[in-house]
TrEMBL record, chains A, B:
<dbReference type="Pfam" id="PF00291">
    <property type="entry name" value="PALP"/>
</dbReference>
<protein>
    <recommendedName>
        <fullName>tryptophan synthase</fullName>
        <ecNumber>4.2.1.20</ecNumber>
    </recommendedName>
</protein>
<comment type="similarity">
    <text>Belongs to the TrpB family.</text>
</comment>
<keyword id="KW-0822">Tryptophan biosynthesis</keyword>
<dbReference type="InterPro" id="IPR036052">
    <property type="entry name" value="TrpB-like_PALP_sf"/>
</dbReference>
<keyword id="KW-0663">Pyridoxal phosphate</keyword>
<dbReference type="InterPro" id="IPR006316">
    <property type="entry name" value="Trp_synth_b-like"/>
</dbReference>
<comment type="function">
    <text>The beta subunit is responsible for the synthesis of L-tryptophan from indole and L-serine.</text>
</comment>
<dbReference type="InterPro" id="IPR023026">
    <property type="entry name" value="Trp_synth_beta/beta-like"/>
</dbReference>
<dbReference type="InterPro" id="IPR001926">
    <property type="entry name" value="TrpB-like_PALP"/>
</dbReference>
<keyword id="KW-0456">Lyase</keyword>
<comment type="pathway">
    <text>Amino-acid biosynthesis; L-tryptophan biosynthesis; L-tryptophan from chorismate: step 5/5.</text>
</comment>
<keyword id="KW-0057">Aromatic amino acid biosynthesis</keyword>
<feature type="domain" description="Tryptophan synthase beta chain-like PALP">
    <location>
        <begin position="80"/>
        <end position="417"/>
    </location>
</feature>
<keyword id="KW-0028">Amino-acid biosynthesis</keyword>
<comment type="subunit">
    <text>Tetramer of two alpha and two beta chains.</text>
</comment>
Length: 459, 459
């Protein structure tokens, strides 16, 4: 029997030179983004006030299957990629499962997560277009760190709106972002009109990704030479993150392996969409039929309890309308520790695939997530981010099913990042003070009732 | 011209199966450890009350050149190794130097440093001997984290004495160590006789590695079935850490490269001794003649300003006497942020090599270290630990010399770890509140005057 190594790293020659655009293989495309003013599909030009041109093009490009990764971005990738594909031998042994468990670990860079993959691309295109600066939001802080790293490298000023509860829970995240010269504003803030409005309506709010997006967009649109960038949800982000899945698939091919099931955590969908992309391609084109499982927090369950509807991507209702699984853009999730998953919506691409039955989804309470996280840390020596630990939980469930059935399935999951800045959360889990929050049906119904009305499309 | 990749990872087959014992190639050996009671060279048996047997043997073994790495330790290594050898293309470009700069990056594991390499070995041998538990000390917290990971994996209880200033500066380090089930005591503490004595003499002391070692040794000796382990200074630790240098040398050979100069940070010597080992072998055996440069903090300059003398390894004077470069075991360094380098002495092996002219050493103030650290983070995207940034500073100096002379030298340095738990320090550097401390000659003379007297050896 062929001995499978613990870790596989591709060589530079084996690393992807192109991103893969999943939309090119979807027979049924996601519904188009709508201009909230006209209710009509948005055009590339209409996106220019917010996004830089190349990214606006990628956002609406449903047909180009493979898109060249610019040389400069490839060179940046080589500073921290390839990320390893790891065989979780010790986890398998601990669970006493016949399953083979692999994980793609994206945490070995200073941003601590996969977010750098899209940050580099977006900062590069912004620089190429001659922009004066960028704005963005960050939840857990990983996207903010990643973008700060990328902007620092390309000498682009950056303003980061950081969700207030993360800003307060993670003082050291701020310092890391400062080290890379970015400005940080806790959101909601007094620096934007929408921030002031949200604060007036909810004075004690701990913020949400949806609020922070509104503020960052307003800031970009109102600042000369600035554009806005986003770390998840968007089609362009899933495109850039396809590098995770492409590397994973190549590495598994080197081992003569193919996953029976692919598991990822789901917030806005950036990691999940990237990880599954080439496997979903196989599914869409009939080459293979792996199961795809999204794991989301029970406190913010957009896929498992949301509505598939047109909604704003932000709380302030300034973005285009996207058809996606959503809890309603007014929904402010409880202060769950997986800040990166506290988002009311879900990538339109993933939403469509889920709606059409290509994907499954489960939700899990945070105490169970931290139980999986600490167990994993002790077995595999990596301290995972709370977001990533959702995927661990999902993979463990699959492995335990195999134990019961005796099947030696091959499981691949995405370990998106590390938890070094989440120690408050770990401490509260260990102290027994961590609580689980699950929104009631009434809360969700109230939020759904406020979904936007679009004449002729969504009444 | 052959294109050199950004990163080289060895395959599992290429990974070292044996550690390299530098002493076997030293014509002039370090002076022997002395039993402080008798003033005579200590025997293996005399070490048994403190160390487990296999480690006591390794400590005194001056002749076995290569020592097999136990299979179980190799398997653990495979969970987080090989570490990458990275070509610092962007740093070179930024410095505009003709030099080629490589670094061996040991930070991509949850301990955040190279410390795990010896922690695994020591925990494994302790488990093999059937011990009930271990005690240790930690300065910056990297060793404590590493040993907690290893002990958790082998189900061995662990008590960590953490230098008080680190305990206070790094609350999240504690949480990480807790996650791996170890007990943490801020040192000096009331839990040991020596701790109580030190507190009585210096009530406001922020502690030091020397104090914490004394407490951990006392606790081990006075607890049934417990032994003590140390993360640096000792010969056994340099032996385990030789994996850093062995991997580096193999990776450089794959690139047809060989360093003209090897640079490492120096506290107790664990990383430096490991990194340089195969290159020093070449030097000792006449095969090659690379320069070896140690970089230490100006606040704790054992090589550059210390005395080469017999001294205790701890502040409480309970350990054997080692001949080494020392500032005196009573010397308590200022609260420098590179906690891992705040040690009064230096590995006896490295001390001897330095004394005999095989190594150079420089010292540097911490503000300059953080200047190098932030510059490096922006160029190479890795946020370094303050300890590691000493090596960056040294490598940059070498690269700038090349810029002046026009020589395209090959520089290798050890990037021992990441700075995610050092954000207080980074923040104080960015705020401009960071201060440099350099001990006065009078302070050092006072400390030297208290070096132990050993009849017939050191009067």
């Amino acid at each position: 029997m062929k001995k499978i190594p613990h870790r596989v790293y591709l060589t530079e020659e084996q690393m992807p030179k192109q991103w893969y655009n999943l939309r090119a293989d979807m027979k049924d495309l996601p519904d188009p983004l709508l201009n909230p003013g006209t209710g009509r599909p948005i055009t590339e030009e209409e996106l220019y006030p917010v996004f830089c041109e190349k990214l606006a093009h990628q956002e609406l490009d449903n047909t180009t299957r493979y898109i060249d990764i610019p040389e400069e971005v490839q060179d940046f990738y080589k500073m921290y990629r390839p990320s390893p594909l790891i065989r979780a031998y010790n986890l398998e042994k601990y669970l006493d499962t016949p399953a083979k468990i692999y994980y793609k670990f994206e945490g070995n860079n200073t941003s601590g997560s996969h977010k750098l993959n899209s940050a580099v691309a977006q900062a590069y295109y912004a620089k190429e277009q001659g922009l004066k600066g960028l704005t963005t939001e960050t939840g857990a802080g990983q996207w903010g760190t990643a973008l700060a790293e990328a902007c620092s490298f390309y000498h682009l000023p950056l303003i980061v709106y950081m969700v207030k509860c993360s800003y307060e829970q993670k003082p050291f995240r701020k310092s890391v972002i400062h080290t890379f010269d970015a400005e940080i504003v806790p959101s909601p803030s007094e620096t934007t009109e929408i921030g002031r409005k949200i604060l007036a309506e909810n004075p004690g709010t701990s913020g949400s990704l949806g609020c922070a997006i509104s503020e960052a967009v307003e800031k970009a649109v109102s600042t000369d030479g600035y554009k806005y960038v986003l770390g998840s949800v968007l089609n362009q982000v899933l495109l850039h993150q396809s590098i995770i899945g492409l590397e994973s698939k190549t590495a598994m091919e080197l081992l003569d392996e193919y996953p029976d099931v692919v598991v990822g955590c789901a917030g806005g969908g950036s990691n999940l969409g990237g990880l599954i992309s080439p496997f979903m391609q196989d599914k869409l084109t009939g080459k293979a039929d792996p199961r795809i499982v999204a794991v989301e927090p029970a406190s913010c369950p957009s896929l498992t309890r949301g509505k598939y509807a047109y909604d704003f991507c932000d709380t302030g209702k300034v973005t285009p309308l996207a058809r996606m699984y959503t809890l309603g853009c007014d929904f402010i999730p409880s202060a769950n520790h997986a800040g990166g998953l506290r988002y009311h919506g879900m990538s339109p691409i993933l939403s469509k695939l889920y709606h059409d039955g290509y994907m499954e989804a489960i939700s899990v309470e945070q105490t169970k997530v931290f139980e999986a996280a600490t167990m994993f840390a002790k077995q595999e020596t990596i301290l995972p981010a709370p977001e990533s630990a959702h995927a661990i939980y999902g993979a463990v469930q699959e492995a335990l099913k195999c134990k019961e059935s005796g099947e030696a399935k091959t499981i691949l999951f995405g370990l998106t990042g590390t938890g070094y800045f989440d120690m408050y959360a770990y401490q509260s889990y260990m102290d027994g003070t961590m609580k689980d929050y699950i929104p009631t049906d009434a809360e969700l119904e109230k939020s759904f009732a406020r979904l936007p009305k679009i004449p002729g499309i969504q009444e």
